[in-house]
Amino acid sequence: MRGSLTRPILLVFGILFAIYHFGWRGETGIRRVRYGVSSNSRSTGARTNPGSLESLEDLGLAEDECRDIFPGLMNEVDRTVANGPFKRQLAALHQIYRAITSSPTPFVYARPGHIASTATTSSSSFVTQPASKAHSFPMPHFSAWSWALPFLNSLPAASSVITNLEATLPFSRKDPRAVWRGTPWFANPSGVNPRLRQDLVRVAGKGNAAWADVQSLDWTTNSASASNGLPIQDFCRYKYVIHTEGVSYSGRFSFHRMCRSVILTPPLEWFEPTTHLLRPVFSTALLRGRAEFEVEMRENPRAHPSKRTREIWPIDVNPDDANIVFVKPDWSDLEETVAWLEAHPSVAEGIAARQRDQFVGGGYVSKAAETCYWRSLLKGWKEVAQVDEGDLPEGVTFEDFILSPEAR
């Protein structure tokens, strides 16, 4: 039994180890794949035209081409690599490996997608770098491949449908309400507002607000689709899309960013690969004006945004440069923010346009960008976890070797 378990366990654990710690041993032997064009048809030294439709389908971009065409895409990888090699995580993983492979009975190790950071929680992994106020999830969401829900599908499929919708529906003709669908209890108990979704339903739920179309998903039909769910592209029919993070980051965010709509959300606590590209304007600055906003920030320690939020988002921009609006975490100024945007339609439309133009127009939702990022992510792990050839003294134990400079 033990022998039959060892091979699949080693395979699965190796994949988990590589993905979790950004692994790749180099580009050698990786076949360059390009949709519709063989690798041999690419002339030596030729470069894909940055920003062209062709480049967004090109899965064989070199690293310098990836960085030219998708500026800022690799920031999360570069930031993590700059932290340098890791040791304690490696030791912990080898402890787990030893325990699994030596088990006399079948043993399953399952790691959750989110690990709470509370003092009372025992976690299977932990951060050894200086603590950050923001949480990071540097792997692309699986919806870039496919999401097996009838109202979501994949990012590429949704992008095509949304592009057709946006081409025929001007911002001025969109539904002026703020829209949201979701599961109220699905929230992070250690987040800034553990009742984030419940509070949203209380403030703007069905029957409570004429300016909003906010509903809890009804799963009573016990099917794969809630009875009041919306196809993902239909969110783009609204001027304002409300976004909520869940237990961790929310996979729907990438879908919403394809809309030419204003995204309204409390300041994000989780950073995905392209979250750092957001240019937020805080609702307080929008409603009170920049001068009054700055005074309130200096004089009122409880002002929005909080000190913690400012550490995560140290810079906000003026409305004419913003591509997203951060409202208060308790949603207390959500209605006022929607009313302000309705009274300033050119500002609202500008925020919506910049949102889609950056994410979709910049190609960050494309297959090429996703492929570029994965390669950069894996190569980044190689930079901090590679094994160099070197002379080792005789008799060194494996436990000491794996933590030594020679094992990097």
From TrEMBL:
<protein>
    <recommendedName>
        <fullName>Glycosyl transferase CAP10 domain-containing protein</fullName>
    </recommendedName>
</protein>
<feature type="domain" description="Glycosyl transferase CAP10">
    <location>
        <begin position="102"/>
        <end position="381"/>
    </location>
</feature>
<dbReference type="InterPro" id="IPR051091">
    <property type="entry name" value="O-Glucosyltr/Glycosyltrsf_90"/>
</dbReference>
<dbReference type="Pfam" id="PF05686">
    <property type="entry name" value="Glyco_transf_90"/>
</dbReference>
<dbReference type="InterPro" id="IPR006598">
    <property type="entry name" value="CAP10"/>
</dbReference>
